[in-house]
Amino acid sequence: MPVKIPLPADAELTPEVREVLATMPPLNIFRMLACAPANLKPFFDWGISLLFQTELDARLREIAILRVAHVTRSKYEWHQHATIARRVGVSEQEIAAVAVDGQITGLDADARLVCRVAEEISRDVRLSDEALQAILDRFGRRQAVELILNCSHFNMVSRLLESTRVEIEGENVLENWKMP
Prior knowledge:
By secondary structure, this protein is mainly α. It contains 8 helices and no strands. Helix 4 crosses helix 8 (129-164). Helices cover 64% and strands 0% of the residues.
């Protein structure tokens, strides 16, 4: 039997943690984070800030996150962010283009650039000078940092998901979620 960290049942959670979970989409990642209650709400708030309170274009952000998910082989992260990507205008053809090994084709120059950044951060940790200069030139300092933060954060998320073995929910919870 494969080893995994089981998701806690409601009876195992404090009333405070159950209250916090009730404010979030019912995703298994948040249920897993309830095992570390002091981190649950800060993690959620940080994620919301990265997803919905930055200047970085939402379409490009989701393409970058999908590339992180592909490179790190995080099926859960891919599943959830493919749903969000569709909701912010990423086409099925673009989603498929991100999910290839090797060189990305079939995307515009900006999307290819964010894929390169996501891949370098995922595989090498440190961006190459060329990639860093390219995002500074294209997006400016603020959005370059926001892109790096998103790629870095979702690398951490993929490692949490894969190491704890969080399973994809039986239904697509984010389909009807009202995004902030």
